[in-house]
Amino acid sequence: MRELLLAGLSKLEYRGYDSAGISVIADGQIEAVRAVGNLSALETKLSGAAAARQNGAVAVAQKPATTGIGHTRWATHGRVSEENAHPHFDSDDRVHVVVNGIVENYMALKERLLGEGCVFTSETDAEVIAHLIAAHYRDDLAEAVRLAFGELEGHYAFVAMSLEQPDLLVGARKECPLIVGRGEGEQFVASAVPAFLSETRDVQYVENGEIVVLRPEGVEIMTGDGAEVQRGVEQVDWDQETAEKGGYDTFMLKEIHEQADAVADTIFDRTARGDGVDLDEEGALDESILKDVKRIVVVACGTAYHAGLIGRYALEEWARVPVEMDIASEYRYRNPVVGPGDLVIGVSQSGETADTLAAMRLARERGATVLAITNTRGSQATRDADGVLYTRAGLEIGVAATKTFVCQVAVMYLLALRLAELRGTLEPARIAELVAELKRLPHCIDETIERCESQAEEIAKTCWDAEFFFYIGRHVGLPVALEGALKLKEISYISTDAYAAGEMKHGPIALLDEATPVVCVATRSPVLDKLISNMQEARARGARVIAVATEGDGEVEPHSDASIAVPATDWMLQPIIAVIPLQLLAYAVARSRGLNVDQPRNLAKTVTVE
Ligand code: F6R
To answer: If you average pLDDT over residues 61-80, what whole number do you get?
Structure first.
C-alpha cells in the first residue's frame, strides 16, 4: 500500500509540491507519516520507519495495509510545515483526510469545533474537514461525510477514511476534480488519472456535488442528498503524458481551465470577512507602511507587466495613490528617482526574473520599501523584498503565462482594496460591493471558458493564416489588449501590435487593410462609446473586427464581424474575464497552425538572464 501510494503521488509530481504525506490503516491502527520537501523526503522518513521495524518497533506504515490515502501539497493557506501537510486527522486520530482546494467557511466551522473541544494541530482550512466528519460519525463514514459535506462551502475535493471502517474510503467533490479508478477487488480515487493509470484504465468521473464510497468489491456514487447515482465506466486510452495533462491536449489548455480554481485559491481567505480585504499574513508588509505610502512604482516584465498595468488603474481609482509603471529592464538603467516613502512592487510569477530582481534591488538600495508579488515560495524575489504577497496559481508548466496572470491581477485588486480601506478612500459599502464581485470572479471565469472556447475556435478558423493582428483597448481594456497580443505572438509566431485605441489614428491605422484582424476589447466601461468609434474607424478601412463584449451590451455586435460575449462584472474587474477569450483565441490560432504551444520557440519559462 505504501509503495502504491508513493507511486501514485509521484505521477502527480509535475504539479510541484512542498510537502507530502500518507496515511494507512494496518492491523487495527491508523497512522499518518508526513514530510516537508519532495517525495524523496517522505520516502526517507518511511524507510526510517522501516529501520525502526528492525529494532522491534513496527511502525504502522510498515505493516501490511489494504487502505490508504496520500497527498502532495503546494502551500496555499498556512506555511510549509509538517503539521500543515496532509493527511489531517481529528482530535482522536480516528478519521484521516486528504483535501485539495479551499474550504471558504472554515473559520466559522473551526470556531464551532473548538468550542466542542476539538484540538487542531495545523493552520490549514483542510483540517476542519477531519474534525467535522468525526463530529458527525456514528457508525457510518459515508453518512458522516454526507453530513459534513452539507456544511462545507468552497472549492474542494477530499477523501476520508476511518479506523472504525478500515475497508472504506469516502470522497466528495465540490468543483475540484475527483476521479475513480475501477479495479478487480480493489478501487482507487484520485484528483487526476495518472495517479492510478498503472493499475487501471477504467474510470468513473465524480461530478460536482457528489459523494463516492469505495469498498474493495465496488463503488457507489450518490448525490449530496444521499440519492444513488448511476454512472457508467469509461476507458481512458491516454498515455502517461496525456494523463498528466488531465486529458487536455496541452498544459496551456489545462492551465486555462484551472484559472477559476487558481483565482479562488488566491482570494478566498483574504476576502473571508466579506466587507473588506485581509492581507495581514505571514511575510506581508507592515500595514502602517502601506497606509502612509506616498507613491507606488510597479516593475515587471512581459505578462507580469500587463498585470501591473491593470493594478495601476485599481490602485489609483480605489486607493488614490499615484502609480508609476515601468518595464523592469528599462527601470534599472534609467537612474530612477525613488526613495523613502515609495513602495516599489515587483511582480514576477517565477520570482527569479533577472531584470525584475535588479529593479527591486535598485529601489531597495535607494531606500524604497519593496513588495514582491510572486507565485513561487522561496524564490529570490521573496528574499530580496521587504514583504511578499503570493499568488496561489499552483505550478504553471506552459511557457505562456495564463493562470498566473489572472492571479497576479487578483492580488493587485486585493492590494488596491486593502489600501483603499486603510486610507479611507472608498466608502465601506463600495468596498463590500467590490469584495462581493471579487468573490464571484471564479464563477464568472468558469462560465467564460465554457461559453467562449468553441467561439474562439470558430473565429480562429477564419483568421489563423493572417500575417498580422492588431489589438486595441481603452482604460483597463488596454492592458488586456496588450496581453492578448503577447499571447498570440508568442505561441503562434504571428506579428501583432497592440495600441490604446485612441492612438490608432496617430499612425498605426496605416497598417490596416482587408487582411487585418483587429481584436477589440470592448467590454463595458465609461469609454465604451469611444472604443466603438475606433472599431468603426478600423472597419471603414476594411479590417475585420473581432470584439470581446460584455453580455447584454447590444451596441458592440453591430460594429463587429465577430464578437464574443463575456459575463458582466464591475467594469474595473472586467479585465480578468476579458482576457480569457483572448487566451483561447491565441491558443486556437496557434493550434490551427500546428504549433507546440507549451514550448514556443526561443522562449524560456524563467528568464534569469538580462
Ligand atoms: C508571457 C510570459 C512572460 C513572463 C515574463 C516574466 O506569457 O510568461 O512574458 O511574464 O517573462 O516572468 P515572471 O513573471 O516569472 O517574472
So the answer is: 80
Ligand 1 contact via 401 beta carbon (within 6 Å): yes
CA distance 535 to 546: 9
The pLDDT value given to residue 48: 75
Q: Is the CB of 607 under 6 A from ligand 1?
A: yes
Question: At 297, which amino acid appears?
Answer: V
Q: Whole-model pTM above 0.90? A: no
Nearest alpha carbon to residue 387 among 480, 307, 279, 309 = 279
Is any ligand 1 atom within 6 A of the Cβ of residue 583?
A: no
How does residue 241 score in pLDDT terms, banded at 50, 70 and 90? confident
Average pLDDT of the chain? 92
Q: Does the pLDDT of residue 123 top 60, yes or no?
A: yes
Between the CA of 304 and the centroid of ligand 1 the distance, in Å, is 6
- DSSP-based three-state secondary structure for 239: coil
Q: Is 353 in the pocket of ligand 1 (CB under 6 A)?
A: yes
Condensed to tens digits (0 to 9), the pLDDT of residues 257-287 reads: 999 999 999 998 899 999 999 999 989 999 9
H-helix or E-strand containing 270?
none
Taking the centre of ligand 1 as the mean of its atom positions, its distance from the CA of residue 218, in whole angstroms, is: 47
Q: What span, in angstroms and rounded, lies between the C-alpha atoms of 335 and 324?
A: 15
Q: What residue type is assigned to position 520 of the chain?
A: C
The predicted pLDDT at position 64 comes to: 76
Gap between the Cα atoms of 358 and 608, Å rounded: 11
Q: Is the CB of 328 under 6 A from ligand 1?
A: no
Banded model confidence at residue 57, pLDDT cuts 50, 70, 90: very low
Tell how far the Cα of 603 is from the centroid of ligand 1, in angstroms: 10
Of the CA atoms within 13 Å of residue 352, those in its CB half-sphere come to 11
Across the range 313-335, mean pLDDT stands at 95
Query: What is the length of the chain?
Result: 610
Ligand 1 closest atom vs CA 353? 16
Q: In ligand 1, which atom is closest to the CA atom of 404?
A: 14
- What pLDDT was estimated at residue 86? 95
DSSP three-state, residue 546: strand
Closest CA to 222 of 178, 261, 171: 171
- Interval 165-182 mean pLDDT: 92
* CA distance readout (Å), 312 to 295, 412, 416, 522, 573: 11, 8, 9, 20, 12
Q: Is 348 near ligand 1, meaning CB less than 6 Å away?
A: yes
Cell of 274: 466579506
Ligand 1 test: best mutation among 251, 301, 608, most atoms within 8 Å of CB?
Answer: 301
CA distance 473 to 521: 5
Give the per-residue pLDDT at 282. Answer: 86
CA 548 to CA 531: how far, in whole Å?
Answer: 12
For 128-161, write each residue's pLDDT tens digit: 999 999 999 999 999 999 999 999 998 889 999 9
Ligand 1, atom nearest to 405 Cα: 10
State the Cα–Cα distance between residues 325 and 390, nearest whole angstrom: 20
CA distances from residue 152 to 103, 140, 398, 439 in whole angstroms, order as listed: 7, 19, 33, 16
- Calculate how far, in angstroms, residue 353's C-alpha sits from the geometric centre of ligand 1: 8
Establish whether residue 490 lines the binding site of ligand 1, counting it when its CB lies within 6 angstroms of any ligand atom: yes
**Helices within 494-543 (DSSP H only):** 528-540
- CA nearest to 72, candidates 90, 57, 58, 84: 84
Question: Looking at the predicted structure, is the pLDDT value of residue 16 above 70?
Answer: no
Atom of ligand 1 nearest to the CA of 402: 7
